[in-house]
Design brief:
The chain has about 400 residues and is of the alpha+beta class. It contains 16 helices and nine strands. The structure holds adenosine-5'-diphosphate (ADP) and magnesium ion.
Length: about 400
């Protein structure tokens, strides 16, 4: 059966499990959410209305709320009101970047993050200048002219629609929505736009011209305590911002932390948490099960394939980053994946004896790198930790 027809039919009948299953399994592009939503609300299936709300345009939601108020039932209006209130607790975006005033080409980020072809054509890509490569794409230097001023950007190119499974495509949109809905934070990457073709997907970001922290550490080898603290404070602020909104990153590592500009001294580095490709919004009391992340930074419970708390795996990865910045290497390493896994699961956290370490910093690392996640600090404890509150 045509999945869309089935989707609308099941919504009209109030079969919540069937609706959920179609959303999870069918190609999201094939589904007419508005039609299904109309059927569900006309027939009083409010549980289904709630499920479908996040997929609808805000204008549709506002319009239907008006409709519910004027002539139909209160229940529906309350559902819309709750939903809209919930959305408005998300901080309003504000520009914290000096270069982000009026110089950017217009973008239509609301919803799915995409820009039009003519907007996209304003950007030029320098294919000779690769800024970095990740597991999902290659990032090139890009630029555009605005009033004859040249502005640089970073453009990530991923394989396009013809190569994507429906779940990849869903994840892509999800990443965009997540970032847009979270609002701006000085230490969290923004997306300026996305442009999708059959062959390629182009993501446009502000250029972080200091590169990523992993490359920075390759040059510096290890960072002095004050420098670590300055960077770490910003990361904690970013992660706190995410966790407050129940967003977990799940891939915090030095390659995904970018430097806003070259750091000429220890206290002028602005860092940005980027690559929200594995981020998800979580139920505060729930557990996640999909084993994702990057091995060196992966918490023991993920390696052991146990259900895990997203927030606490972020704390583990942050702890690994802090250790790596200070000592120049991760605490649990090895020559192959099995050795690394074994070391993460069973080796105690060791502090090289020949390098002096402040006792507060040592304590912070210990509470972030507790193998048992039930004993691990949460982001609030980290934020208020003594090491961070002293200058
Ligand atoms: N905005 C940016 N400015 C400068 N370099 C960037 C930017 N975004 C990404 N990079 C570089 O490209 C690499 C891969 O980007 P990332 O978004 O992490 O891709 P992936 O999802 O494939 O891991 C990063 O580790 C970094 O070195
Ligand atoms: Mg990455």
């Amino acid at each position: 059966m045509d999945p869309n027809a089935d989707f609308i039919y099941q919504a009209s009948k109030g079969n919540i499990d069937a609706v959920q299953e179609i959303i999870n399994s069918a190609d999201k592009n094939d589904l007419d959410y508005f039609q299904a939503f109309s059927e569900a609300s006309d027939n009083g299936h409010y549980d289904i209305v709630k499920i479908l709300l996040p997929f609808l345009d805000k204008k549709i939601i506002a319009h239907n709320r008006q409709k519910a108020r004027t002539f139909r039932n209160r229940v529906l209006e309350n559902i819309f009101t709750d939903y809209l209130n919930e959305q408005s607790t998300i901080p309003k975006p504000f520009n914290t970047y000096a270069d982000a005033s009026t110089s950017e080409p217009p973008t239509t980020l609301a919803g799915i993050c995409t820009i039009t072809e003519s907007q996209f054509k304003k950007y030029h890509i320098n294919y000779k200048k690769v800024l970095g490569k990740g597991g999902f794409g290659t990032v090139y230097l890009g630029y555009y002219y605005s009033n004859e001023n040249l502005t640089y950007v970073a453009i990530k190119i991923q394989r396009g629609l013809r190569y994507l499974t429906p779940s990849d495509y869903h994840q892509m949109k999800y990443e965009c929505n997540l970032l847009n809905n979270m609002g701006y934070h000085l230490n969290i990457i923004r997306i300026l736009g996305g442009y999708v073709t059959d062959d390629n997907i182009y993501w446009i970001y502000p250029l972080m011209d200091g590169g990523d922290l992993s490359k920075y550490l390759d040059v510096k080898r290890q960072l002095p305590e004050e420098h670590c603290k300055h960077i770490f404070r910003q990361l904690v602020s970013a992660v706190y911002f995410c966790h407050q909104q129940y967003v977990v990153h799940r891939d915090i590592k030095l390659e995904n932390i970018l430097l806003y500009s070259q750091c000429s001294n220890t206290l002028n580095c602005t860092v940005v948490l980027s690559d929200f490709g594995l981020a998800v919004k979580v139920d505060p009391d729930g557990y996640l099960i999909d084993p994702v992340g990057t091995l060196d930074y992966m918490a023991p419970e993920i390696i052991l394939r146990k259900p895990y708390k997203g927030q606490l795996v972020d704390i583990w990865s942050l702890g690994i980053c802090l250790y790596e910045l200070y000592y120049g290497k991760t605490p649990f390493h090895g020559t192959n994946d099995e050795v690394i896994e074994e070391s993460i699961i069973s080796l105690p956290l060791l502090f090289p004896e020949h390098i002096k370490i402040n006792s507060d910093l040592k304590n912070l690392l210990k509470i972030m790198l507790k193998k048992d996640f039930r004993e691990r600090a949460n982001i609030l404890l980290v934020k208020n930790h003594k090491w961070l509150s002293t200058s």
